């Protein structure tokens, strides 16, 4: 019996030691978080000029269906590559970082939430690449139209009647 109790003590000790030691576990790696690219960019121009230029570009781009616009809201509703979304233009406030007139151009879903889908990012990239040249073209057309305007005629003033 003495040997049986000794054997039991030995088994218990082995189990305790085995329970205390463990193989190192690999730390669980969290799933990779994919951060979509920001669906916006800033351009140094006024909001109205940017909104007009964006509209001119959208109606001339292949694959873009122009569905509507709202100038006071600074938005265009478009369809591109089978996806409907909004393009907003919004003037940014001047600050320590922003010293000149600057407008943000961004995409959003039709419910107003940010849109970082592939078609939205692609269209925004096209706009970002073409917008500076379009702004220059529109500005030069404005200047040419102002140069063609005849100078305003001076109003003829009536001579005061002379009484004799």
What does this structure look like?
- The mean pLDDT is 83.
- A hairpin with a 2-residue loop joins strand 3 and strand 4.
- It is built from 3 helices and 5 strands.
- It has a 5-stranded antiparallel sheet, with helices on one face.
- It has a domain of 104 residues: TATA-Binding Protein, CATH 3.30.310.
- It is α+β, with helices and mostly antiparallel strands and 164 residues long.
Low-confidence stretches: none
Query: How confident is the prediction overall: mean pLDDT?
Result: 83
Oligomer type: single chain
Number of strands: 5
For the record, the CATH class of the domain at 40-143 is: Alpha Beta
In short:
The chain is built from three helices and five strands, in the order H-E-H-E-E-E-E-H.
Key traits:
TATA-Binding Protein, 3 helices, rod-shaped, 5 strands, 164 residues, 5-stranded antiparallel beta sheet, alpha+beta, 39% helix
Secondary-structure map with pairings?
Blueprint: H1 2-20, E1 40-43, H2 47-60, E2 64-70, E3 75-80, E4 83-91, E5 103-108, H3 118-148
Helix pairs in contact: 2-3
């Amino acid at each position: 019996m003495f040997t049986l109790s000794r054997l039991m003590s030995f088994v218990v000790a082995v189990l305790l030691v085995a329970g205390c030691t463990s193989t190192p576990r690999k730390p669980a790696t969290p799933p990779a978080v994919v951060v979509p690219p920001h669906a916006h960019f800033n351009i140094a121009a006024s909001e109205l000029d940017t909104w007009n230029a964006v509209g001119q570009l959208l109606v001339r781009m292949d694959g873009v269906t122009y569905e509507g616009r709202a100038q006071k809201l600074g938005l265009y509703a478009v369809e591109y590559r089978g996806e409907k979304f909004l393009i907003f233009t919004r003037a940014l406030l001047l600050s320590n970082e922003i010293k000149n007139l600057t407008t943000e151009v961004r995409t959003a879903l039709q419910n107003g939430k940010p849109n970082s889908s592939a078609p939205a990012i692609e269209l925004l990239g096209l706009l970002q690449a073409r917008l500076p040249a379009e702004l220059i073209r529109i500005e030069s057309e404005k200047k040419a139209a102002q140069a063609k305007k005849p100078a305003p005629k001076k109003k003829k003033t009536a001579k005061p009647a002379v009484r004799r």
